[in-house]
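Lab meeting, item 3. Inverse folding demo.
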């Protein structure tokens, strides 16, 4: 890990990338090109710039300074819009609505391989050990084994539900459920697109537009449970220490607790009326949970473990349009929006958010974000993907001036 971080830092010192080994152009921005105006022109706030109108009323005029982020690269090559991202060892994986998954090798950000074409639009990715799980629009989860010893580094090994699971259940009528008018399916099947995945403790969770939450065991890929979780599509999932948070278009974030045999509903976190939840994340070892909504706001709750209760501690207008994705890195929270911007925030001890800056540059709504676990210099790397079909790479400093608290 340290050697990889060192290689990344060394690459930052270069003014230009070396020629690509393949013919397809994939990087259009030099790594940390020494341009005094590069960060400012892409939307970071400086003392001479004004914040968006929606946030001006919330930011004291006496505060100055801003985030000095850097645009590292713009990676192209996807057929459709980039829908999800995941870290897999030395690779950053990006998947698209064009049914393809690309593995980019760090630190030089070169395209290593492309796989998954033709298996349905990819909606979500998670990695577990040497396996990658991809969720698709066709209601299936595909399992890819990662092996350097194989000619095919990312090899498809299974599709969920597995054939074995089907054979064990298809003969018994009680295993079928009504999905919509005149349609019946096995309870182990999703009846619509799988929109999100989460993994914790040897279990994979899948959320779908069919309003169900399903639980899969990683060891044998068996579906253990199906929960009719919401009244509308499930858009986001996160799991930690026996608790699962599901965010839905019905305006609710539900907290599910893992029991001995099945999950039970523990709490319902509600936002504003008629607002869809598009993303959910947890921070500070599960003490804080944040949801991103269709109204451009981020709301946060603090969990009191002793009282087993959640208290609203944050309600912030972060964007002009809907928040589509969230990610966290240490004390930072990043939000991607339909307004084509990325918000960078710092958490305070009580769960509130201080605005560090706004990153502009994407040419379409930002659909997914992924922060790297590697420290690079005095900051971290942030990956973003969206409707402009590109994967953008940013460097975000951990030291900054002029953070703004937004109420």
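The presenter then showed the designed sequence:
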């Amino acid at each position: 890990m340290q050697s990889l971080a060192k290689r990344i830092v060394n690459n930052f010192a270069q003014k230009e990338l070396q020629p690509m080994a393949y013919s397809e152009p994939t990087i259009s921005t030099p790594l940390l090109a020494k341009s005094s105006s590069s960060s400012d022109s892409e939307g970071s706030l400086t003392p001479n710039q004004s914040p968006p109108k929606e946030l001006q009323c919330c930011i004291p005029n006496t505060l100055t300074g801003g985030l000095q982020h850097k645009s590292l690269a713009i990676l192209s090559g996807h057929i459709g819009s980039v829908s999800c991202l995941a870290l897999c060892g030395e690779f950053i994986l990006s998947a698209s609505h064009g049914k393809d998954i690309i593995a980019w090798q760090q630190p030089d950000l070169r395209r290593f391989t492309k796989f998954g074409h033709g298996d349905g639009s990819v909606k979500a990715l998670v990695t577990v050990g040497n396996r990658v799980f991809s969720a698709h629009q066709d209601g299936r989860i595909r399992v890819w084994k990662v092996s350097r010893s194989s000619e095919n580094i990312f090899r498809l090994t299974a599709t969920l539900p597995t054939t074995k699971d089907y054979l064990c259940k298809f003969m018994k009528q009680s295993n079928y459920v009504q999905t919509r008018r005149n349609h019946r399916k096995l309870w182990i099947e999703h009846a619509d697109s799988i929109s999100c995945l989460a993994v914790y403790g040897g279990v994979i969770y899948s959320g779908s537009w069919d309003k169900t939450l399903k639980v899969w065991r990683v060891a044998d890929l068996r579906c253990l449970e199906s929960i009719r979780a919401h009244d509308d599509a499930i858009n986001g999932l996160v799991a930690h220490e026996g608790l699962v948070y599901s965010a839905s278009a019905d305006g609710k974030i539900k907290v599910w607790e893992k029991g001995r045999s099945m999950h039970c509903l523990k709490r319902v976190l509600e936002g504003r009326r008629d607002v869809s939840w598009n993303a959910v994340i947890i921070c500070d070892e599960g003490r804080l949970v944040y949801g991103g909504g269709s109204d451009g706001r981020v709301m946060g709750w603090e969990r009191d473990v002793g009282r087993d209760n959640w208290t609203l501690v944050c309600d912030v207008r972060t964007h002009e349009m809907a928040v589509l994705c969230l990610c966290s890195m240490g004390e930072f929270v990043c939000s991607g929006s339909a307004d084509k911007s990325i918000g960078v925030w710092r958490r305070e001890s009580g769960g509130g958010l201080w605005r560090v800056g706004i990153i502009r540059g994407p040419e379409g709504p930002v659909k997914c974000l992924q922060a790297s676990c590697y420290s690079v210099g005095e900051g971290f790397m942030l990956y973003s993907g969206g409707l402009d079909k590109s994967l953008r790479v940013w460097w975000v400093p951990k030291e900054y001036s002029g953070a703004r608290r937004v109420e």
